[in-house]
Specification:
- The structure is a homodimer of 266-residue chains.
- Chain A is α/β, with parallel strands linked by helices and 266 residues long.
- Chain A has two domains: 126 residues, Rossmann fold (3-Layer(aba) Sandwich); 135 residues, Cytidine Deaminase, domain 2, CATH 3.40.140.
- In chain A, 38% of the residues lie in helices and 20% in strands.
- Chain A contains nine helices and twelve strands.
- In chain A, the strands form three sheets. In chain A, strands 5-12-10-8-6-7 form a six-stranded mixed beta sheet. A four-stranded parallel beta sheet of chain A has the order 3-2-1-4, sandwiched between helices. Chain A has a two-stranded parallel ribbon with strand order 9-11.
- Chains A and B meet through helix 6 and strand 7 of A and helix 6 and strand 7 of B.
């Protein structure tokens, strides 16, 4: 048995991880990020918990020490507006930020990870706790695609890998050999909505893992919300690189079937 | 003296080319694309003209033959909705289209160019007629940029080249080492509007030439409309790869100064 600490943002992933860590017989303590969940995760659901604002790194470190955390996991979405607008960094956070090159949450997270590991808190990969949630290859859910759509999935995966290598984003929409939309900072759902207005029926949403991605920090993730955004936009095909994370996979597959959205792993 | 034929879409470029060809002492005849200009270009402004719908390639060929065209130029925007929704191809256009792989106007234009050249009508590059309109390197117009913004221009050019190599689009918006938005089929102005909602003040619009671009068919182009879209979006910096086309360059520079938008060639 070891003690795992989870820094929990918004969405379905943190509760999934709590269940997975407990199911495997370990202690789990949680740092809820303030303002990122209507219902923070608290005992008795977990062994210990605190709620801290983004930027309160000093207090978070004290909590990890007091709990004797042996592995730290980061999971769930963090509002980008916090990084850019509402961040109130404490002394530890300031030390981190002042040594950073410019340019986005990825670099902040990587610096934070390095700092934690230097202080003796190894950072783990959430996906290692959720092997049943990783997209395999082949037909995963919903209707089966035509050869033409499968061709677009291959094309889109190549484009998404190229876009990821440029550190732009993880997701693209393609249609008959054309790139309809590329995700940058607007987020997947806004990009899907735009693509729905621009694309023909057969368009495919493709999510890929950046070649240089740190899998401890940000694995491309889909869930029922992704399917809802696609349905709203009129997009019917989703391709995931193998290894992407599917939140609540059983519910996801049932929803894909209900919404008639075909999902493939590549 | 030779006879130049211009296939004219929407915007300021076709009239600029007419003036340039006439100023250099040549005959110019024009195929106006139907529905693409409130005022088609007609004699006495040019030596001969016809107005044809997109897709009437047979009639266009007859016009080129009758006029003895020795060089054909394509210039001006063509509504993408025409390709996808309203195209009524004649027999010649059908021959062209049925031999095409899927995937967008670039391939259609390339096939059309090949067909014209095979029939003895060489296709020229509009930019060769407009040497004064090509972006040089250095500060071109408006306020001068800080070192930080110049750094983002270099970064953005590298990203835009990568995006172009993937055949996605020509334009990106970057801010402090982050990619804010990437243009795919939505068009530059829509992408600029989105970036304005997502980016901080210092963001830079960057336009680059695709590595594999056919310069006879589609050179990245900016004009006063680009500046107006940037002003509307609150974006203040524009970087162009050297060789991009600036429509009405004197008016463009005056407008950049008036709107306080700094423009650089890289």
């Amino acid at each position: 048995m070891k003690t795992v600490a989870l820094v929990a943002g918004r969405g379905a992933l943190p509760p999934m991880l709590v269940r997975a860590v407990k199911a495997q017989g370990h202690r789990i303590c949680v740092v809820n990020l303030k303002g990122h969940n209507d219902a923070p995760i608290e005992p008795p659901e977990v062994d210990a918990a605190t709620t801290l604002p983004v930027g309160a790194i000093g207090k978070a470190l004290k909590f990890l020490e007091a709990q004797g955390a042996e592995e730290v996991l980061f999971a769930g979405n963090v509002d980008k507006t916090v990084w850019y607008r509402d961040l109130r960094p404490d002394l530890q956070a300031l030390k981190l930020i002042t040594n950073l090159p410019d340019g986005g949450d990825d670099r902040i997270l990587r610096a934070l990870t390095d700092m934690l590991e230097a202080k003796g808190f190894p950072v783990g990969a959430p996906v290692d706790w959720l092997p049943d949630c990783l997209a395999p290859t082949g037909h995963l859910a919903g209707p089966e695609a035509s050869a033409e759509v499968v061709g677009d999935m291959e094309f889109g995966l190549r484009i998404a890998k190229g876009v990821g290598a440029l550190e732009i984003g993880q997701t693209v929409v393609v249609c008959r050999g054309c790139v309809v939309a590329v995700e940058a900072v607007e987020g997947t759902d806004a990009m899907i909505a735009r693509a729905g207005m621009l694309a023909k029926k057969g368009a495919v949403v493709v999510k890929a893992i950046k070649p240089q991605q740190d899998r401890r920090l940000d694995v491309p993730t889909v869930g029922v919300e992704t399917l809802a955004a696609m349905k709203e936009a009129g997009l019917r095909w989703l391709a995931l690189e193998a290894g992407c994370l599917i939140l609540e996979p059983e519910r996801f597959r049932a929803q894909a079937k209900a919404l008639k959205i075909g999902v493939y792993g590549r």
